[in-house]
Each structure stands twice: as C-alpha cells, then as structure tokens.
Design brief:
It contains 7 helices and no strands. 74% of the residues lie in helices and 0% in strands. The chain has one domain (8-158). The longest helix has 34 residues, at 130-163. This is DUF2975 domain-containing protein. Keywords: Membrane, Transmembrane, Transmembrane helix. The chain crosses the membrane at residues 12-35, 62-81, 93-114, 134-154.
Length: 170
C-alpha cells in the first residue's frame, strides 16, 4: 500500500490546528501568570512568575515543548499555496508573541529571585536564592533561544518557497 499523501486542504487544516493549539497553550500560560491570583493577598505576578507556592504553573506551561514545537510543525506542514503563506505569517507572529511573553515572564522571575531582601521582608524567608534564579534564567533563555530558532526557521521556509518559483521566460 503506498503512503498516504495529504492534499493542500488537509495540510492547511492540520497546520491551522497545530497553530491553534500553540496559541491556546501560550494564552493559558499568560492567564496563569497574570490572572491566576488566588485569594491570598501575597499572590502576585512576580511570585507566580518565579514559580513559588501559590499558582506557579505559568513557567512550566510556557517553557515547554508544545508552544515551541507546534508552530514549527505547522510551518513545515503548511502547503505552498496562499493559506500556507498565511499560516507562515501567523507562525512568525506566534513565535514573536512567545518571545515577548517569555522574556517578560523570565525577567519577572529573575527580578523576584534576585531580590532576596524583599523575599525576606515579605515572606520571612528566601524562597528563591540567587543561584536558583540564575539557573532558571539560563533554562528560560534556552527555551527562548529555541523559539528564536523556530522563528528564523519559519521565516526561512517561506522565503525559500518564494525564491524557488520558476520565472516566466519571454
């Protein structure tokens, strides 16, 4: 039995679904970070970004394989037609949003982690020391670098596609 070839419409639908899933994961991470405050008055965006107690799921949701890999798969799967070019643009937009949100989340976590005096004054103990903050910042930078590579990959795939078309010879 020959391998199944997907047509442009099926590839467009699959790429759109992958891109939609990536957007959903990123939106959930933003919601967990900015709007996930519980009734505890000590729960704020910096503590959630740092991942201590309270509602600390935003970092693990955003810095995971799904929001980084799904847009790349969508760009690779998108057909060479007009819907594929739109998916390519949306892929770059998703990666750009991921990078902006990721930098803000990582810098918020680092800000909280590097401020041991504030933690000691507000919490009575230091939850995240300087070493742990640096380790998290390095890991966050790796995820952001992977997303940057995905952004470059998505841009290169579309520019290669445009230059590979045959020109009309008169």
């Amino acid at each position: 039995m020959p391998p199944t070839q997907f047509g442009p419409r099926a590839r467009t639908v699959a790429a759109s679904a992958l891109l939609g899933c990536a957007v959903a994961v990123i939106a959930v991470a933003v919601s967990q970070w900015l709007f996930g405050a519980e009734l505890d008055p000590r729960d704020d965006a910096l503590r959630r970004a740092a991942g201590i107690a309270f509602t600390d799921e935003a970092r693990s949701t955003l810095f995971s394989v799904l929001p980084v890999a799904l847009p790349a798969l969508a760009a690779a799967l998108a057909p060479d037609s007009r819907p594929g070019r739109v998916i390519g643009r949306l892929t770059r937009l998703v990666y750009f949003a991921y990078l902006v949100i990721g930098v803000l989340l990582a810098s918020s976590a680092a800000r909280y982690g590097f401020d041991g005096a504030r933690q000691l004054a507000e919490e009575g103990q230091v939850f995240i020391g300087t070493r742990a903050a640096v380790e998290r910042l390095v890991l966050d930078a790796v995820w952001l670098a992977l997303a940057g590579i995905g952004l470059v990959f998505a841009g290169k795939a579309r520019s290669r596609e445009r230059t590979s078309t045959a020109e009309v010879v008169k």
